[in-house]
Amino acid sequence: MTDNTTQKLNEYCTEIEEHLKAFTADKPELQGIVLEAMEYSLMAGGKRLRPVLMLEFCRMCGGDHKKYFDLACTIEMIHTFSLIHDDLPCMDNDDFRRGKPSCHKAFPENIALLAGDALNTLPFEVISDSALNGVIDPRTAVMLTSVLSKAVGANGMIGGQVIDLRSESKEISIETLNTLQEHKTGALIEAACVMGVIVSGRLEMIGQAAAYASALGRAFQIVDDILDVTSTFEELGKPIGSDREQNKTTYVSLLGLDRSYVEAGKLTQQALAILDEFEDNSFLKELTEQLLSRRS
User: Fold this and answer.
1) What is the band of 176 on the pLDDT scale with cuts at 50, 70, 90?
2) Does domain 3-291 have CATH number 1.10.600.10?
3) CA angle (187 as vertex; 104, 178 as ends), nearest 5
4) pLDDT score of 171
5) How does DSSP classify residue 182?
6) DSSP bridge partners of 101
7) CA–CA separation, 287 vs 228, rounded Å?
8) Residue range 85-99: average pLDDT?
9) What sign does the CA torsion over 146, 149, 155, 156 have?
């Protein structure tokens, strides 16, 4: 990425992290441990891709994105809740996340579970408070709540996780894998892009934002599958080869490495073409291209 794009991304991430930390700053004595666990996972690093996408789609559509950092944080809260729960022994049983002990290793398992639960509900408090405080109007709050809750639920991220669990040690088709990843990974990326359009008021651009997210989400997951084979613990911050150990079907296991690279490239080009329908898109174009060549 160019220096300007890198600087803008760093500015976004710094501001997002300041807002995230504010949500867990108050830690009451009796229940403070769950706020500590929430903060531990929220501040463990990460690309902050989803809140950045929301803010960028708002900005590209002419909205005042600087007003909506708290709303952008709601998507990162949901993402973090999913990571906490994914790492639990009853799910993927991963001991490390982003180079640090998983939440259930740093805190008691029951506290980690509750931290994830709290991060699943806090976003809707933030959205409703934004309406009550006049940051957004009530109709916008309802639309955001609808988009985000659907992206999380049985027909979204959680549904994708169910398909993933039930597909372990089974051979599944590329169609089933696409459905799995459209739900598990793609739904929240789509929600981020669409929420940015909603707060901008340019509702006629929702379809384009969703189409971009669909292409980006699948490319993102294919690159994740590639990195699970080709990266290192130091780069990824978690064990390598976990998909194979858990007998999970991935794009690499179905298509092979070479075809996976090609497919991720094609999807990235589709996403870039859709961005041509948005003004002032250079930052997001560069970020989209960088995600294809990332090492973590």
Assistant:
1) very high
2) yes
3) 100
4) 87
5) I
6) 96
7) 21
8) 93
9) positive
The pLDDT of residue 185: 94
In angstroms, the CA 120 to CA 269 distance is 33
Predicted confidence (pLDDT) at residue 153 exceeds the cutoff of 70: yes
Percent of all residues in the chain with a pLDDT value above 70, rounded to a whole number: 96
Q: What is the DSSP string of 245-272?
A: HTT---HHHHHHHHHHHHHHHHHHHHHH
What pLDDT, on the 0 to 100 scale, is given for residue 248?
83
Above 70 in pLDDT, residue 241? Answer: no
Q: What distances in angstroms separate CA 174 from CA 180, 208, 250, 251, 256, one per listed residue?
A: 10, 25, 9, 8, 12
- Smallest CA-to-CA distance from 164 within 186, 179, 149, 148 is with 179
pLDDT per position as a tens digit, 187-216: 999 999 999 999 999 999 999 999 999 999
Domain boundaries, the chain: 3-291
Q: What is the C-alpha to C-alpha distance for residues 78 and 38, in angstroms, rounded to an integer?
A: 11
Q: Give the whole-angstrom CA distance, residue 122 versus residue 250.
A: 32
The partner residues of 97 in beta bridges, in order of sequence, read: 100
* Residue 233 confidence (pLDDT) above 80: no
Give the DSSP H/E element, type plus range, for residue 162.
Answer: helix 157-166
| Exposed e or buried b per residue across 170-192, where buried means at least 16 C-beta atoms within 10 angstroms of its C-beta | eebeeeebebbbbbbbbbbbbbb
Element housing 96 (H / E): strand 96-97
Q: Residue 110: name the closest of 84, 129, 136 by CA.
A: 84
**Can you tell me the mean pLDDT for 261-266?**
96
Is the pLDDT assigned to residue 238 strictly greater than 70?
no
Nearest residue to 41 (alpha-carbon basis) of 90, 92, 82, 93: 82
